[in-house]
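User: Design a sequence. Structure:
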């Protein structure tokens, strides 16, 4: 999602996900029980994966990343491979249970042979998640995926994006191709890098897609079940070529805003593009080059701040904010103790252990996963509905036996539980 493709370097996305140069919103605290749910034994450690449980059926909700509409966020897992072959196995979905969190047994594998729409009779070989939001406004989150349709190199390439619509049983139908009307296209780049958000403030989710040459295709929602937007005009001029999600209402004016990087990869300057009645059409604050960026509320009662990760640490945009010492390549924001103020998570450093940095200058908290290997922070979002963000990490152990662990947020200075609430292996898919 978040043009999130990056081989095995970017694997999970979710509602409040934040990673390199992504926006992340703080979760508002509302209390809850600190007692963790029963731990799920990882399949890789158990030696054999159990049969998948039925996907819970829902009636629709407003919870982000809730594909089956039962009121609980679900998790999307990319970079699954067939053991020993290195082939793309598809996209993994782990469904949640309201008030409980993720239930690894309630899982689904979206294979391209079954779920991708073919082009000219060819089934896509690539099938990767890009963004998730309720595009048709039916109360079920939909999944936007990227594919590799055949292209002869002449003229504009075909649209590589498809939509898998959610429903009471989750993602059960084959994808449909996203329609980008001719008047909304520009140049000969692949239309990709989709970002969801209500950029025009009408209450429906829109899509912003990279066009070409510093232009964005703005597709107004809601979308039909055939993948067509309600409306689309001429491409919008942008200060860069890489729109990045998730969107966030930075200035709290009722319109979602968008971060646009000048270029992809490495350290690149970026700028916030402000939403409005015409969509994301006005340039906002310019941001210097950095390794990563998170946006969140790091002070009570304040609006959104930016946290820029550089080689020397993290700098907050708020005047007078202390500089935070950290070493890493990605930064994420999440409110782990539920006090209404976001903390920062820096990962990718030499220690290989993610660090949580309170923005008020309190001592950092180191997260030491139980599994051996290189660990990447994937997501910080409230999975169990207790008002505190939970931290999802992935430890790379092999082509098909990576370990996913979920550490619940807790009240107090520790911020996270010392042991994961849920662990499971990619071998279960």
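Assistant: Done.
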């Amino acid at each position: 999602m978040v043009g999130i493709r990056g081989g095995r370097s970017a694997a999970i996305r979710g509602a409040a996900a934040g990673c390199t140069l992504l926006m992340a919103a703080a979760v508002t605290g509302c209390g809850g029980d600190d007692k963790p749910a029963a731990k799920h034994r990882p399949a890789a450690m158990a030696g054999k994966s159990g049969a998948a449980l039925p996907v819970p059926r829902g009636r629709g909700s407003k919870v982000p990343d809730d594909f089956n509409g039962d009121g609980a966020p679900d998790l999307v897992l990319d970079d699954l491979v067939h053991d020993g072959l290195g082939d793309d196995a598809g996209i993994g979905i782990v469904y949640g249970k309201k008030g409980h969190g993720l239930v690894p047994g309630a899982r689904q594998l979206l294979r391209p042979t079954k779920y991708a729409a073919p082009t000219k009779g060819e089934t896509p070989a690539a099938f990767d998640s890009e963004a998730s939001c309720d595009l048709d406004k039916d109360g079920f989150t939909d999944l936007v995926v990227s594919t590799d349709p055949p292209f002869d190199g002449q003229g504009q390439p075909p649209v590589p994006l498809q939509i898998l619509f959610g429903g009471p049983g989750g993602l059960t139908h084959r994808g449909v191709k996203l329609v980008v009307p001719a008047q909304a296209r520009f140049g000969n780049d692949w239309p990709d890098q989709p970002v969801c958000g209500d950029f025009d403030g009408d209450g429906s989710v829109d899509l912003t897609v990279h066009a070409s040459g510093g232009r964005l295709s703005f597709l107004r929602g809601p979308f039909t079940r055939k993948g067509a937007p309600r409306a689309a005009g001429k491409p919008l001029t942008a200060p860069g070529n890489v729109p990045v999600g998730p969107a966030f209402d930075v200035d709290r004016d009722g319109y979602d805003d968008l971060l646009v990087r000048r270029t992809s990869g490495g350290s690149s300057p970026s700028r916030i593009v402000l939403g409005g009645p015409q969509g994301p059409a006005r340039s906002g604050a310019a941001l210097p080059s950095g390794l990563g960026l998170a946006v969140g509320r790091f002070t009570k009662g304040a609006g959104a701040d930016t946290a820029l990760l550089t080689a020397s640490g993290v700098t907050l945009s708020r005047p007078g904010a202390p500089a935070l010492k950290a070493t890493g390549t990605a930064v994420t924001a999440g409110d782990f103790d539920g006090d209404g103020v976001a903390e920062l998570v820096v990962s990718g450093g030499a220690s290989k252990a993610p660090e949580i940095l309170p923005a008020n200058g309190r001592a950092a908290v180191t997260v030491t996963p139980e599994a051996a290997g290189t660990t990447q922070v994937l997501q910080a979002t409230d999975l169990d509905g207790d008002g505190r963000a939970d931290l999802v990490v992935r430890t790379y152990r092999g082509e098909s036996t990576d370990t996913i662990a979920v550490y619940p947020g807790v009240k107090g200075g520790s911020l996270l539980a010392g042991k994961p609430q849920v662990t499971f292996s990619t071998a279960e898919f």
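Residues 7-428 form a domain with the Methylamine Dehydrogenase; Chain H fold (CATH 2.130.10). The first helix runs from residue 43 to 46.
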